[in-house]
Records
---
Amino acid sequence: MNKGAIIGLSIIAIAVTLLLFVLQDAGTYATFKEADENPDKEITIIGQLNKQKEVIYNPEVNTDLTTMFVFDANGEEREVHLHKAKPRDVEKSENITLTGKMVNGVFNAETILVKCPSKYQDGKMDTSKLMEQKF
Amino acid sequence: MTISYIGENLQLGKWGHIAVLVAFVFAILSAIAHYFAVEGADHEKEGWRKIGRYAFFAHGLAVASIVALLFTMLYKHHYEYFYVWKHSNNVMPLRYILSCFWEGQEGSFLLWTIWHVVLGTVLSFTAKKWESPVMAVFAAVQVFLISMLLGIHIPDGPFIGWMILVIGAFLLFIIWNKLSTIERITIGGAVLTIGLFIVNKNIPGFQIGSSPFTVLMREHPKYGKEAFFLNPQYLHALDGNGLNPLLQNYWMTIHPPMLFLGFASTLVPFAFAIAGLWTKKLNEWMTPALPWIFFGVSALGTGILMGGAWAYEALSFGGFWAWDPVENASLFPWLTFVGAAHVMIIQRKKGKSSYVTFLLTMLSFLLVLYSTYLTRSGILGDTSVHSFADGMPGQLLIFLFFFWWLAGYLVVWNKMLRIIYTVLSICFFVVQFYVDDLKILSIVLIASYIGIFVFSYLKFFPKEENEKEESVTSREFWMFIAAILLLISCLQIIITTSIPVINKVFGTALTSNTDVFEAYVKYQILFGFLICLLMGGGLYLKYSKTPVKKLLSDLAISFVITAALCLIVAFSYQLQYKNEVFRLVVYYLFFFAATFAIVANVGYFIRVLKGNVKSSGAPIAHLGFGMIMLGAFISTSQSDVISENTSHFDLEKASDNSIKNNENIFLAKGDTLPMGGYYVTYNNTYQDGPDIHFDVDYLRKKPDSTFEKEFSLSPFIQINEKMGNVAEPSTKHYLHKDIYTHLQAYKTANANLYKVPKGDTVHMNGGFLWFKDVQLSVKHQNNNEAAKVESIKVGAVFETYVPGLPKEQFTVIQNLVGKESTSPETKVESLKSKFKLVEINHEEGYFLFEITNYSNEYIILKAIQFPMINILWTGCIVMIIGTTIAIVNRNRKTKQTQNVG
């Protein structure tokens, strides 16, 4: 076998090993129930904000705590303590991705990713002001 | 009843649609003509080449017209057009019109297209005998890109089947003479079957591309039904939706063009590689392609780092690189491109090409397509903060598949295998529309692709006979290793970034680790370490064989200097990482490697090249990259959140002690708090256009306990009702460190209006204010009492009765000049309030005051210190200089050999 083939095969071998390693690192999207069952494990949840309840960020008391209520993929609702300042536009969010651990029934999140409904794409036409104008 | 609207300019859009069609048709014509200039009969080739060339110029002109028309529309605020309405508005400063242009999908494709036109035009004149095969590829890419702008609606029903039949018949006609009878029958049969199969299916209608020239109210029913549009003069009152405030930054006017120039430049070597395979000139294509690779490495690298600079200046995540999928996507092609440059240097030296050269060169462009798919199709959804949703995923996939197929087809060096490969690809493409579970299909496809490629390489791909084994002390051996390392490093980033794609294909629910150290850095720091060592040592190696003694002494000098520098850092500055010894050891090792890359290349330039600039492209480019690595490493690994909460509030204990995201400081207006060796305070806020600025002063405490201002930053909030307010950071740049300051939240004083008749009181701060008196002072022209009144000054005199405070008197003023009135603010420190006389109502006999209590204003700050980030930016410039020298040198050498030959 020539050198080229050896190199080719070793690249494939390394790539496969790497893939396995990387996928081992990767977590899976989970639900609050799984978070309950694995209290020490870091878990990633994709959910939706309960927009009926208020997102509380009171920096005068704690600059690093945002409290909200989130539904997971099963529709189960939990209180979430995000240990960060309130992320921008969280109220408008469509989906949120949280990573953290469950502690005493409260999901303590360290990171958050807020996905807004096509954030800047879908402009709403604000004609309310325009309609008032007399032409 | 039809309404005739006033002020609409529909001509522009009509011309725009026409220009898009013209660009599309001429791109097709150019591709076909250039194809025949390669494949046609000898006496016809020259004619075809000319047609191809002029068709490409016509295409280029049409693309330029599209750009010009779109600019005109944006510049003149033609809100009757959807694109203009969606991406711009009246209040936006004119300088951001460029950002509006490429904010949308259509505009950014246009930007990409126009760079291809520019590069293609340059190649038309410089590629000489390569013109036709190279430009055929260029024009084909343009066909796909322009199709993204077509905006043609395909109706329901058999239409698409007929289209496949017509296009298939046409393509078959083009290659008819190349085929044997059996192939004619098989391919013809396949086209006919697929076409008829689809004709019989009722395929729902869809749209090809999205035109930037659609008219808001007529072609967008969602908006067009607004009652507002019944008014013939609607344009007078219509304002645009506006530009995403985050993009209103000067980096956003130069980063996208640079990045797309980089993307576009990967097409040139790709086209040369395709041309080389196609015309079976497996070695010659590298000579013209090499300077373009250097150019592309430089352009793409700069584009990526400019994006980093934008993120650093304007975004709130703190830092220039967040391993966001969109950032990663732009990095893939760069890594393989650098790899391609290195293998190509080796192979050119040997005068022959290799499989890996083709692989890396073509992979770079194909990865650009893959990145485009990742970022534009919306597939990244939940993993990226900036995925540009509303895509044309189907069309992008076809674009991606076609060129992956083409590259693979040419690499498979055997007719039979090529047919198998093609049939397999087409089957996969058709079947994936009909099955939901792609798991098995994908595994089969990937496995058979790998099989075909490996088999065709071992069995058929032309290889040099009795190739000499390369010596372990040869430069080419280690350059090859470096290229492979870059490929593997790229693979790791691709795999992790592609997790959403993996999920989609295999139906899994994986997530990448949100800790970027676990997800990326722990792998990349290893690759970076090895690459830095290779960059430092590589140039001291000679081609074919290096005398070991000389090499060791050369390297020893660099090692000693690097070790000395590392010791200095270890003892005087010390790298930090939370007392975790292993990580700290890794940090020092990486620090050593990056410093070694810098020291060794400077040494090479001084000692070996004796400062000869002409041939110093490689060491200077390597020096630049070494600096980028060092700067990136120090500024990110040693960045320090200095804004711990030092306010008087106790932090509520987190229910889990492991979580201590204690990184925001609560700063009340007027307070002075210690923060990271400084003291911070803010006393002033002011509004500038839509931005509310907060002047944050960083102070130093002097020995006598007084404060001295060190510098002042002005982070701001951009008020944007439509898209939500956006906070933009402000950064103090020192030579050796940056201090980044970002507003997490804020509370400004709220103003209240009070109607107060003279003599009445206002309750405030537990006491009250008495509106005691009104003073008038009238100023006449030239101070002449008989002349006209020039201005009147009204003063409302207040007296304070607040328990615990001494009685105080102050006056709130309004100035009247003609009919214009101005109301300056009166600030009363003891009440922590500002007063303004807004209106004097004579009829009802009251004065309207605006009273603003600013006592409970505060901001929440996050401040990060980034050490040595300037090494990174400087490194970028050094790398550009290095690659430029390399390009100039390469062109000079090519000219010399041409003259000699």
---
Amino acid sequence: MSEQVADAPQDSPRPDDHEAGAGRDPLSMLFQPGAWRLERRLHTRPVYELYATLIALAITAVIIGLLVIIVGVSPLDAFASLYEGAFGNRESALETLVQATPLILTGLCAAIAFRAGVWNIGGQGQFIAGAIGTWWVYDTMPGLPAPVLFVAMFAGAAVFGAVWATVASVLLVRYGTNEILTTVMLNFVIDSGLSWLLSGPWQANDTPYSQTERMVESTFLPRFFDDSRLHLGFALALVMVAVVHFLVRRTTLGFELRAIGVNKQAASYKGVSVGAAIIAVMAISGALAGLAGAGELLGLHHRINFEFGGQAVGFTGIIVALVARLHPAGVIVVAVAFAGLINGATQMQVGTGIPAALVDVIEGVALVLVLLAAVACRYRLRKIAHHHG
Amino acid sequence: MADTDQSGAAAPGENILVAEEVTKVFPGVVANDSVNVAIRRAEIHCLLGENGAGKTTLADILYGVYQPDEGRVLLEGEPLELNSPRDAIEAGIGMVHQHFELVPPMSVIENVVIGTQAKQWLDLTEARRRLEEFFADYDVEIDPDAEVGRLSVGEQQWVEIFKTLYFGVEILILDEPTAVLTPQGIDELFRILRRMRDEGLTIILITHKLKEVMDLSDRVTVLRRGKVVGTVDTADVDQRDLARMMVGREVLMQADKAASNVGEPVLEVEEIHLESDTGRGSLDGLSITVGSGEIVGVAGVSGNGQNALFDAVVGVRHPETGSIRITGQDTTESAPHRIATLGVASVPADRIAQGLMMDFSVKENLVLGNQRERQFSRAGILNRGQIDAFAAESIDTYEIKTPSASQITRTLSGGNLQKIIMARELSGQPQLIVAHQPTRGLDIAATEYVRRRLIQERDRGAGVLLMSEDLDEIFQLSDRIAVIYDGRIVAVTEPDATTLEQIGMHMAGASDTDRGSQ
């Protein structure tokens, strides 16, 4: 037996149809069929997208706050300690920029490929390929003078990253193989390849560990300050943001890769070689991730061991790019914010006992909500007028 | 109308369906502005207007797809609230849209009963009986068990119409039903529609073709820019009156053009075969030649190889056998960008899918395809000054209505989209112009403009390959007419040496009267 709610609105007689809905609660109005309708907007203004993104981030904060309450901690304490660890003082702020450095580059890697409608999920593998390329140059060209060696190592990283991405793009262009699958699988392949290198040809002689020798100090990237690990790689990342922005907006290649991202069919009718553009953008994308690998190796770790790449910056870069809505400058902002989260989470764990893994939840929730916001601003909610009698 | 008989068996001639002060606003567009239309029982009532005049929006309101922002719909004098097409069908109003809503892999009979079966199991005997009766009654030869995807578009339209009638509707709305038909198919449709009207069905027909209004309708309501210009008895007006009402001024019914001055061939297509691997049709030994300074019109029902011919000439697809020469050079295997450098301009049928980047700015679309030209870039870097200058000049010359050159293309109207394409394609003084359906969906002013420009290009010495399903356009513009059927050119003639009926015959693939029915 179903129990009737005493004053269910639909049961009440409608004394005056002209005033229908006036006395009812807004929620039942909202869900009344035909009362409200989602309509597609003809076009969105960029400012809507900015607002929508900010609202999405605010909702993210609320959701995370609720999670923190469930754990039994005051959200204010949690956020305060998160902020403290991320940007609270000079030391932590600079360390946040250290963490942001590879994310900016892997974020660019994803952003430029996604702009062209090519779903490169292989930033992680290309990042490792970059580190391998750096080491290979270091290992095989010991006689090079320092400045040349730096250039050669970065070039090696870019080329290795590009080649690894090109494996997927050639399969895509030649055989139509889905690039999402191939790039994901190539991540595993290069992981195994790296393990083999570290336990075989490149294993350091004096240790039982799977790792390379430590690089000589002359190959360390210079640091900006004595009291911070912030290295030249950060500046390089910022330069690459400018380069990518210029490439996308101001060059024929950028024009064409945006074109294939928007409408492949029209691009091919207008003479753009879609295959060539895909090969080019994937190579650039892979090279950017490769540079991230070089920066981490030469700026921070100075040797490759099995933990190299354990931070999964290649995958986080995908989230960075999407939350930044594929804008190169936005990538800087989001990469620094995410790096702050990663950095602050450690402090938060120590200070409040909240697991640092909460950062993964924050990233995930933010991504989903920002993507939803992007879809939402293509629509508007409209009330449908009703006419009776 | 307030004293309509309760039984509903009112006499013909009374108002059955009335739109009263209906206003519907879409973002930036007033699609219907205080529209008043009264449809009488058992009449054929045309809604006539240019594209964007608001006829389809009005019909969609009568069919419950949209709800009016203001005003109301009355059925037999009673206000009618339609929140969905389902409500409309229950009220006895059915509609056949321009784009069919059929399930191609299912049979005719299965398509007809979709949405009508209340039971858990499928009982087709009753449906089959009514379907066979209907087809026999109206002389339509369609096998109820045929797979709908294998039927011709004309036959599919019959399935749509019967599907709607099967719901038991009293009012049938048809949105541009003749767009997919040959002249003979149109005659057949009209013959049956007249008979249905005589049997008591009320028919609302949306069209922008004056001839159809004159041939078929009892009364016509003309819409312009969302407003009703007037409702008239068809017998009291002629085509010129209707055209004037539609456009709001006098219209040239005939494009003026001088005699052609044909020179060297600019396009020579010989015996090309193209497999249908992309869903864009196939060619089966097609040959055609276009000389400089002439317009060759290709007439045909859509789906007979027009897309494939377009693709082959611009180089998006390459024929398996046969050859294509453009200005004397073999381009059979050439890539689109190389063909473009030979002075080939292309105006694709689907300007949104194949001609434009809707998310690009207007100026970017104006240089699309030419971005590597020396005018617009050096060493791979775009020359923004030159692009801006070219865009400003094109917007001016072609009267493209846009707030600025940086405006996102998506926000422009269809006519302006086509002007962007024309401006881009004609900028390099092309030797060959391949235009497929260049005026489809455009209003009369934009249509006139596009046609005039094509004639100007011809007079300048360009060869024009014009593919169109609009036979009036073919006859007006062409110096020679070729008919395409089933991937081949089946007839080549001159406009003065033939008639609409003869071309229609060839379009249907018949050398004489037999039109595919066994």
